[in-house]
């Protein structure tokens, strides 16, 4: 069969007709409910199994937590003067439970020892690398230092990711707060309502706002609750929001108007950041283009000429 243009068009038309018939036929077929029911039963059985094994897992987690708490208490890390700093770092990363603090302190105590012991095993016992005794000791000490830095690096990465999410959610949250303020809601009610509305879209900001609303409800000083929000988020926009709320409560300025102006400023800042990223894009793409695009381009353009030159020279 000759592969002419008419034959190719005819084959493509036939394939299109066959696929259309198959699609319509599969759409008109009655759906099999037994398969879905079987999947539902399997999921239900798995849920019952997890529920049955849940107490055992909880017991194991409680035992592990008790062990870590005993180690931390033995080392007297809970009475350290760095506790406020560690608590603030964990709060900025979204970890505010006592179990998170225990796990963080245990990691700070165990990872240096574990990393140094692992390095000592590979260097001294397994004999990896032809190193002198001084270099072996430096490797062990370096591994211990790296193990000591890992928990802080991990928490800082979590805090940075959470900070970016809060920065993205702040303008939308301010717009909703403007609507709540214009509706006549109080500050505590506005924070609670906004946290419920953005819980699915921005869970990090919803968590912070709901916690601030709770603190405003039971703390004697409302300013302290707002300051706690600013310290946990560590954003210029949140700092501006806190200052606006404090100034509004102190001097009686209109809350909705102040929040509207602040939301407009934050949106302008977000647009400027987007324009800055767009302006950096050509400079960022220069290195990948030089490494990955130009060499194949040179091969495609110069390759035929080089092959022709080789063929012509091989005839002599």
Tell me, rounded to a whole number, the average pLDDT: 81
User: What is the makeup of the main sheet?
Assistant: none
Poorly predicted tracts of residues: none
Strand content: under 5%
Number of helices: 10
- By DSSP, the count of extended strands is 0
Structural class: mainly alpha
Q: What's the SSE pattern?
A: HHHHHHHHHH
Radius of gyration (CA) equals: 32 Å
Q: What is the helix content?
A: over 70%
> Which of globular, elongated, flat, extended, rod-shaped describes the shape?
extended
Distance between the termini: 44 Å
Characterise this structure.
The protein has 316 residues and is mainly alpha-helical. The mean pLDDT is 81. The longest helix has 60 residues, at 255-314. Helix content is 85%, strand content 0%. Among the domains are: 83-162, no CATH class; 164-273. It has helices spanning 5-28, 33-74, 83-92, 98-125, 133-182, 187-197, 203-218, 222-233, 236-251, 255-314. The protein has 10 helices and no strands.
């Amino acid at each position: 069969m000759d592969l002419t243009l008419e034959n190719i068009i005819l084959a493509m038309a036939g394939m299109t007709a066959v696929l259309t018939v198959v699609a319509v036929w599969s759409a008109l077929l009655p759906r099999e409910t037994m398969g879905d029911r079987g999947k539902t039963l399997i999921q239900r059985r798995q849920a019952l199994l997890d529920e049955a094994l849940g107490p055992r897992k909880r017991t194991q987690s409680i035992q592990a937590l008790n062990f870590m708490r005993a180690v931390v208490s033995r080392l007297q890390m809970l009475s350290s003067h760095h506790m406020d700093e560690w608590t603030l770092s964990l709060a900025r990363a979204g970890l505010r439970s006592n179990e998170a603090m225990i796990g963080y302190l245990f990691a700070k105590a165990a990872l240096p020892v574990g990393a140094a012991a692992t390095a000592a095993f590979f260097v001294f016992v397994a004999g990896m690398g032809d190193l002198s005794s001084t270099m072996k000791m430096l490797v062990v000490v370096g591994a211990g230092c790296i193990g000591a830095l890992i928990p802080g690096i991990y928490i800082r990465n979590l805090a940075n990711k959470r900070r970016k999410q809060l920065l993205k959610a702040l303008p939308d949250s301010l717009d909703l707060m403007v609507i709540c303020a214009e509706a006549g809601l109080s500050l505590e009610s506005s924070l609670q309502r906004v946290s419920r509305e953005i819980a699915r879209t921005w869970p990090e900001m919803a968590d912070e706002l709901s916690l601030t609303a709770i603190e405003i409800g039971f703390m004697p000083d409302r300013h302290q609750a707002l300051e706690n929000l600013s310290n946990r988020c560590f954003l210029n926009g949140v700092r501006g929001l806190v200052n606006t709320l404090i100034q509004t409560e102190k001097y009686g300025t209109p809350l909705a108007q102040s929040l509207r102006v602040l939301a407009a400023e934050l949106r302008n800042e977000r647009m400027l950041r987007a324009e800055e990223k767009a302006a950096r894009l050509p400079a960022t793409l220069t290195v990948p283009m030089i490494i990955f695009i130009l060499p194949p381009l040179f091969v495609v353009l110069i390759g035929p000429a080089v092959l022709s030159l080789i063929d012509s020279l091989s005839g002599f």
